[in-house]
Amino acid sequence: MSRPSNAAHVTLADVAAHAGVSRATASLVLRDTGSLTEDTRNRVRASMNELGYVYHRGAASLRASRTQSIGVIVSDISNGFTAELTVGLEEALAAAGVVALIANTLESTDRQELLVRSMLERQVDGLLIIPAIGTTRAMAERLSTVGVPVVIASRDIAVPGLSYVGIDNVTGGSCAAEHLLTHTNGPVAFLGGFTELGPRQDRVAGIKRALATASDAWLEVDIPGPPNGSWGLETARRLLDDGSLPPTIICLNDQVAFGVYRALREARPEGPSPVRVVSFDDVAEAALWEPPLTTIAASGHEVGVRCADILLGRIEAPDGPTVRTLITPTIVVRESCGCLV
Amino acid sequence: MSRPSNAAHVTLADVAAHAGVSRATASLVLRDTGSLTEDTRNRVRASMNELGYVYHRGAASLRASRTQSIGVIVSDISNGFTAELTVGLEEALAAAGVVALIANTLESTDRQELLVRSMLERQVDGLLIIPAIGTTRAMAERLSTVGVPVVIASRDIAVPGLSYVGIDNVTGGSCAAEHLLTHTNGPVAFLGGFTELGPRQDRVAGIKRALATASDAWLEVDIPGPPNGSWGLETARRLLDDGSLPPTIICLNDQVAFGVYRALREARPEGPSPVRVVSFDDVAEAALWEPPLTTIAASGHEVGVRCADILLGRIEAPDGPTVRTLITPTIVVRESCGCLV
DNA sequence: TTGTAGGCGTTATCAT
DNA sequence: ATGATAACGCCTACAA
Question: Domains along chain A?
Answer without folding.
Answer: 7-61 (1.10.260.40), 67-166+300-328 (3.40.50.2300), 169-299 (3.40.50.2300)
